[in-house]
Backbone:
């Protein structure tokens, strides 16, 4: 169990110096206990006490960091079983398998897919993060050559290095430099050798058991060796077993604080599914239930994109809607005669509206009013997108200095506030735009023609 705020405060210097950014040690301790501050922010805590508090305050699913620099990837860190209880913390990374028994052309195709399959949605770039490199039939030299090639051609990729030979993995780690890989995997037969390599190379280590009990046993042994950054593969070989294992591991870690299961998992849906579409469906199930990482047999755009969108939606904080910053957004290079439109700052609304305006090719000014992430009608009903708030924003945002005319286009759903808005903005002509964003291109072209 985590320490309470009072228990943490008893271990602090109690000087109320404020160096942590909080006025008192008690306030700081309460924030640490609530998971809203890190104990490292106090510069006066004894390192041994700091480690004790950090360990006690750690999430039940340990956070494992892979990669390096701007290409770091976090697994785990989860604290709840259900998203609505709080939120899910670290999005499930998706990976692509590469193996030494593949033809050069196939490897090149897969690397090209990894680099090119990227999309932007509501301002977020969607892409896979992981390449899993597998040594087949003990082909050490080709495996090491593959590691070198991937590091050169896809330096942003986080690597899972798969080999039964600890010596091979040790050499592969050297090729990665500071880029921290995940070594796969420690089994009941080789966990001592694999654990030693992981300790020496400061790499994360995957645990692979034949079942839950064996996975827990290997995890316990590695914990005794001082290894903390583990990732679990329970050895499931059927769809049902894989699904059930994810739930059991998550519940045991969060509800029972069973330490051997307090780590993220790694899953290989292709080992259980029959056919690529079945694999994709299973991956879609594992994203919310509760895989730490998913390795796919191949990438196809029509499969990868829906998985990435699902992941984005599942790992969005349900208590914080996606928003864009309030302000003036020029689209298509507007000038002083270009139309002025206004909408809310709900991210999905912004990107739909801005996309339609951009597609119209009509230079326009788009005003984004802060509505705390609410959509147009919801914000109006909540009093955050009414005539008074819109008028205040229009007056202070500076758009009057950018255009000669005084014409403001409001969403068609707000037609009812036209009169009020004209009273609030007597110098402006209020024009009712289309109800749906899809009507904007024709609306703006008519504006331009007039």
Residues:
């Amino acid at each position: 169990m985590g320490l309470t705020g009072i228990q943490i405060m008893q271990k602090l210097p109690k000087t109320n110096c404020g160096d942590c950014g909080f006025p008192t040690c008690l306030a700081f301790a309460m924030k640490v206990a609530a998971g809203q501050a890190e104990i490292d922010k106090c510069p006066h805590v004894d390192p041994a006490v700091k480690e004790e508090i950090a360990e006690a305050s750690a999430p039940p699913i340990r956070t494992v960091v892979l990669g390096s620099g701007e290409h770091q990837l976090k697994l785990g860190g989860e604290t709840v079983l259900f998203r609505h209880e709080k939120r899910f913390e670290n999005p499930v990374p998706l990976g692509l398998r590469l193996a030494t028994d593949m033809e050069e052309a196939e490897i090149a195709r897969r690397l090209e897919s990894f680099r090119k399959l990227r999309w932007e949605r509501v301002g977020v770039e969607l892409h896979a993060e992981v390449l899993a490199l597998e040594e087949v039939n003990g082909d050490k030299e080709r495996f090491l050559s593959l590691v070198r090639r991937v590091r050169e051609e896809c330096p942003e990729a986080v690597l899972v290095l798969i080999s039964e030979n600890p010596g091979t993995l040790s050499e592969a780690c050297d090729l990665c430099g500071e880029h921290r890989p995940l070594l796969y995997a420690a089994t009941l037969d080789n966990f001592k050798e694999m654990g030693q390599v992981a300790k020496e190379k400061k790499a994360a280590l995957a645990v692979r058991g034949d079942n839950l009990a064996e996975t827990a046993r290997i995890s316990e042994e590695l914990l005794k060796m001082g290894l903390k950054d583990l990732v679990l593969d329970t050895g499931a070989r059927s769809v049902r077993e894989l699904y059930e294992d994810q739930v059991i591991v998550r519940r045991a870690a969060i509800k029972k604080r069973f330490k051997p299961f307090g780590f993220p998992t790694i899953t290989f849906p292709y080992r259980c599914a029959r056919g690529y579409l079945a694999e994709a469906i299973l991956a879609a199930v594992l994203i919310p239930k509760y895989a730490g990482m998913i390795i796919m047999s191949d990438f196809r755009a029509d499969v990868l994109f829906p998985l990435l969108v699902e992941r984005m939606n599942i790992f969005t904080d349900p208590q914080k809607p996606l928003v864009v910053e309030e302000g003036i957004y020029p689209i298509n290079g507007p000038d002083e005669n270009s139309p002025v439109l206004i909408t809310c700052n709900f991210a999905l609304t912004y990107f739909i509206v801005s996309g339609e305006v951009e597609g119209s090719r009509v230079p326009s000014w788009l005003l984004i009013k802060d509505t705390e992430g609410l959509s147009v009608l919801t914000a109006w009903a909540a009093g955050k997108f009414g005539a008074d708030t819109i008028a205040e924003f229009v007056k202070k945002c500076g758009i009057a200095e950018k255009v000669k005319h005084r014409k403001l286009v409001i969403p068609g759903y707000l037609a009812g506030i036209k009169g009020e808005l004209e009273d609030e903005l007597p110098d402006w002509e209020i024009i009712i735009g289309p109800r749906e964003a899809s009507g904007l291109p024709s609306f703006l072209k008519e504006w331009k023609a007039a």
